[in-house]
Design goal:
The complex is a heterodimer. Chain A is of the alpha+beta class. In chain A, about 25% of the residues lie in helices and about 25% in strands. In chain B, about 20% of the residues lie in helices and about 45% in strands. Classes of the chains: A alpha+beta, B alpha+beta. The interface between A and B is large, with 42 and 37 residues.
Amino acid sequence: MAARNHNQWMAKPPLQQGEWIDSRVYTDQEIFEEENEKIFKNTWIPVCHESELPKPYDFRTTSIAREPIIVCRGPDNQIRAFLNVCPHRGMMIERRPSGSFFEGQPSGNPKRMTCMFHGWQFDMKGGCVYVSREKEGYQERLCKDDVGLRRLRCEVKFGGFVWVNLNDKAPDLESWAGKPFECLRKSLEAEPLEVFHYHKAIVDTNYKLWHDTNCEFYHDFMHYHNRVTGFNDAYFARKNEAFDNGHIVVGTFEVNYDKYEGFESRASLSFPHLPPNQWYMIDLFPGINFNLRGSALRCDVVTPLGPNKTMIEFRGFGLKSDSKEDRMTRINHHNSIWGPFGRNLHEDLIGVQGQGNTMSPGTEPRRVLHGRQENQTIHDENGMRHYYDEWGRWLNRLPSSPDKPYTAPEAEAVTAAE
Amino acid sequence: MASVPCQPLICGEITVSNCETVREAIYQATMALDDQKWDDWLSLCDDDFQYSITSFSPEINYEMTYLAANKKDLRHLVDLLPKHNTDHSPLHRHTSIYSVSPSEDGKTATAVSSVIIYQNMLDGTHSHVDAGESRLFLIGRYFDTLKLEDGKSTFLKRELKLDNRRLDKGSHWPL
């Protein structure tokens, strides 16, 4: 068929339910607000890595679904998370991205989290230890025990990542994401990891479009590097495996890095228990990616800022025991592909930006195809189908028609093009 | 190495300061990079040239290296650019040289320059709307080491130390 008229363009594709979605899932403000409330406030998010707060009293600040969060390491070496909100009048307690409470601040004492506004102080367990002129103002009506910080579920797991969940009743992290991590658990937990890379991108696109790009490898046609180092029989045999809770794992194969001019094999610096030059990827619902290319680990975490605005934080990791020389080699391996000036990341970000342009709020709803079926191998789009089925359950919306309630994909017969 | 004041150099019939040749090299590099004349830029660099883009992250408390390359790596990088998809929006650098410090033996000099890089949008986020607009892309400083020889300066080392950690789409091009 040649180019289509409007009716043809708007017709349902000759695919089954679940093999395409409606672009309103990327553009609708109401859906975005629902995602924050129903998904991001109820799922585990790796907000930082334990190596970002190596000493007692170190802290990091972050946010999930607009809720400000502070993570700190106590004198007992435990890492805990709290809402970064003073219970007095709602001031953000700590404004810096990172630092240490070991030293005093203009409004407060050492070893305390202090709200600069009125000088209330909290210990590393979130207990209130000082209320300025407490007795004079509150007499016996309110005391420090009544005004502790809001404690958040926090676990350090899967290679030292600090995971936070805003829902006190959510399932534990192991049951949420343990199974997809099995493929890399031994490699990530053999010895401590250390972060060596951080940068962020804020792009005009929906967070799911970024996660889609991490879930599908059909877009390797966009990357010259991946074509020359990858496209062979072993590459096309890689499996996309679906796990409960909307997670997927992309299986490994041996990458021929030296096929790209100027690049070298990464075999000598493979992560523990990992055969040479392997490449695993774990994509966790709703927007987290762990990507291990032999010698370096990358982790992306999305923070949705609007239906068409997403912050992506990129981190890179090596082994804490690295020599200076090995660390530099790992950094080069990481950044030559995934750094902001590397061969692939720039291209990925151009791709999702282009999608964000054509699917910005107010544009005509489009159908986005997820219908490639290749026996769940690398260019099969089963990863995205699995993700959107989970998404539909969480929001009770049908991804192909988000005004309708969710139904399982099998419930609808093949629909031919009109 | 200790530095000394700028010294006059005899270049044919013209006497110039060795610091002037350093400044000239930095500005020539700026123009070559702006114009994407990669061969011209690399011709200003010694065979032992080392290039890096770095930034300190207070988030992770780490001196990061975003890109590290020698001259051979850079040759591969620029030769392969036609095979890579990229944002077509040109970059323009505003370079201000703050200091030039020749070494005591007069064989090398270090220079510190402020650099502001603008992106003149072509692709943009939506070219129909954004093309033609200039946006601030990156801010940082060049820390250069140059070899002084035969009345000219060639780059031995360049570190571009960025203030930015928010880098959005990034770039494929040397900065």
